[in-house]
Amino acid sequence: MNEIFSSVKKPARYTNSEFNSIHKAHAKVKACLCFPDLYELGASNLGLEILYHIINSIDYSSTERCYCPDIDLEEILRKENIKLFSLESKKPLKEFDFIGFTLQYELCFTNILTMLDLAGIPIKSKDRTGTQWPLIIAGGPVSFNPGPVSDLFDLFVIGDGEDVIKEILREIKAYKEKPLQKETSKNELLLALSKIQGIYIPVIHKDQRNLEIVKRTVDIKKSFYPINPIVPFIQTVHSRYNVEISRGCVHNCRFCQASSIYGPYRERTPDQIFEYVNDGIKNTGYDEISLGSLSVSSYSKIDSLIENINRYCINKKVSLSLPSLRCDNRSIKLLPCLIYPQRANLTFAIEAGSQKLRSSIAKGISDNDIYNTMRAVDKMGWKLVKLYFMIGLPGETKEDIEAIIILVKQLTKLTPRIQYNITISPFVPKAHTGFQWEKMEDIVSLNAKKDILMKNLRGNLKAHNVRMSVLEGTFARGNNKLLDVIIGAWKKGARFDHWFERFKPDAWDEAFRENGVEKDEFLNEIQDTSILPWGFIKTNKSSDYFEDEKNKSKIGILEKEIKADIIEEDIVLEKPIQKQEDSNNVENSFVYRLVFTRGFSVRYLSHLEQVELFRRVLKRAGLPLKYSKGFHPHMDISLGPAISVGYESDNEIVDIETTKQLDLRQASEFVLNNLPKGYSLSGIRQLYMRMKSVDSLVSIFEYSILGLDTLFEVQKINEILTEYEKNESVIIEYIKHEKKETADLKEKIYKIDYKSSLSIFLRKEQKNNIKPENVLLELFKLKENDFRSIRIIRKNLYTHKDNVLSVIY
């Protein structure tokens, strides 16, 4: 199975055994949790992480993971007729008892079809009536209007998943323990599951009158939270330890669906949060913490919490980041704690340029709140601030668009040292909001507004693709008419539709046209307020509440009136917390060299990914590492020469500096206990003087090539090598950095011979180094598929002086 990854762009997406991943061989109920997008996006998803650990903590159940393969791997799987598999055991998806998809955004629907089709599982639930198929379950925000994909999934989980997943597992276990009488007995399981609160099963519920599916809500103070999350090998969109400090939101903006989905508002205690932070950093080795919340500054004890966590971060050389902040005094008070040990960029969601429109959408911030906040940000030294605005909001006028331009220009004039990055997004009406009945503005009008802003706010301005937003709006309030449209677009090549460079609007337009469905049916204003396709799903807010909010928006009524404060002439800020350095205290310094082996299962990591892996391993090991001084302290380590993706290695060298002398046996044990599967520590020793970097010392690389004897007889291999030795020069052409280069192998190869395996010694040069693959292609005329039988191992690094090779160790 691993051989196919050598042909894809980022093979480390599909490798196994990340640190803290779980491998459970035997379980009565087997699940696979799926994220319908690339690994880089899904690996950081907190909801899947929570469910992953809960399911694996139960003695009779286990779960693995699967992410949507990129197009290159999809093509290989189809060509070679390999069924889509899980990450941990590479088991085909259709062999699990149930497959759980998280629906985080509407434009992931085609990826779900890709994953089911690659797994050999029928797309529509009506075609999966037999017991040979796993249950296909959906959860997450998009499930709050299941209409567009209601004929795809067997059941939907509405609301928090921490408790309901245990009830689902119990029912599946009980079902599996019964003797199966007939293939249609799957209906018996669905009937049992339908009695669980928060479960919507279309085949059972869709024709019921007065149906109410009440969302699940947990007490987050008592619910499970992962302090040992999986640490990905590769860079993800959120490569940090995330701590959810609250769930829900106190502000209830009228356009915002999240406050209904995640409400009511609940907080974890400061003691819990600090415990999670401390344990999470120890167990992951991350150098950044993020506090997760829909409104961080609204946390009741945010001042003391941030101050304590900031002290921890300074002591542990960990940076602190926060999600989007509100423009208010509570956020201003947090600024001093966000400077050290690293200054993160700040993001503020302004939403609308005019006070009138912000009142209409219940965004309770005034112009003066915005000005005061940005002046405070400027005073504390930030150079980059991101601002988010929406266009196409209900009741928006030309003056409201002009107000965005005026506001940004005034901010630029008021705080000239700050660079403002502006993001513009079209408003999309969503279910379970005060604006769920509103019309979505048409493409022409939205593009015209976008063009005005792009013209007048030149420079650092980004705008979402309007056609993508309109498609999102169609699905956000759509019904089951849309599944055939989704299938049609998918068959025309639609994939990864929320990626601008992958989006295929023409495929979607054709699919709508061929299925006789008009987008306007779902984008126009909903006139009959009593009939909503998603009305049977009950959140913590009633239908009357949403209708009342809709009416309030027409006259701009806020629950709490905004105080129009005068802009302060001088904003008083607390002094930032800094670690006090003793000028008389000279830090001790001890240098150590660690040598690692890199095995078959982790050979697809890039050099940069491996560097980050070693940083996290050393941090988890708790060694007294030395950090650089200054504003952005970083770990003082040095690695050997970069290793190519796909290579194994017996000699990966890492030099570190510590502030204390190490007990080598104890240090070895700590490091070994924190290495992911596939790596091993082969040696550690102290260097009694600071040496040059390993990279600068290397003159010769030694590689061992295994598997060549599966392609050639040993006699033939030796004949090829003999012929090579006879030639005075062997000129090759190869591609490097997308440029064609030429080289003489006789000058590049120091030595080549074959015993039990092929050994190649390559000279290291300042530039234009060749790889073992170049040698194999030229001498043995290997084809692309032949490399699946080949293993390349970097055996040793050498210095070369006076015609003598010396191993670097």
Please tell me about this protein's structure.
The strands form seven sheets. Strands 18, 19, 20, 21, 22, 25, 26, 27 and 28 form a nine-stranded mixed beta sheet that branches. A six-stranded mixed beta sheet has the order 2-1-3-4-5-6. The protein is globular and about 85 Å long. The relative contact order is 0.08. The protein starts with 28 loop residues before the first strand and ends with a strand. A hairpin with a 3-residue loop joins strand 25 and strand 26. The protein folds into four domains: 213 residues, Cobalamin-binding domain (Rossmann fold, 3-Layer(aba) Sandwich); 252 residues, Aldolase class I (TIM Barrel); 107 residues, Alpha-Beta Plaits (2-Layer Sandwich); 110 residues. It is α/β, with parallel strands linked by helices and 809 residues long.
Low-confidence stretches: 564-572
Which fold name corresponds to the CATH topology of the largest domain?
A: TIM Barrel
- The CATH superfamily of the largest domain is known as Aldolase class I
CATH architecture of the largest domain: Alpha-Beta Barrel
Q: Identify the overall geometry.
A: globular
Report the average pLDDT across residues: 92
Helix fraction by DSSP (H/I, runs of at least 4): 25-40%
What is the C-level CATH assignment of the largest domain? Alpha Beta
Count structural domains.
4
- Per DSSP E runs of 2 or more residues, the count of β-strands stands at 28
Rg, alpha carbons? 30 Å
Q: Specify the biggest β-sheet.
A: 9 strands, mixed
The portion of residues forming beta strands comes to 15-25%
Structural class: alpha/beta
N- to C-terminal distance: 34 Å
* Total count of helical runs of at least 4 residues: 26
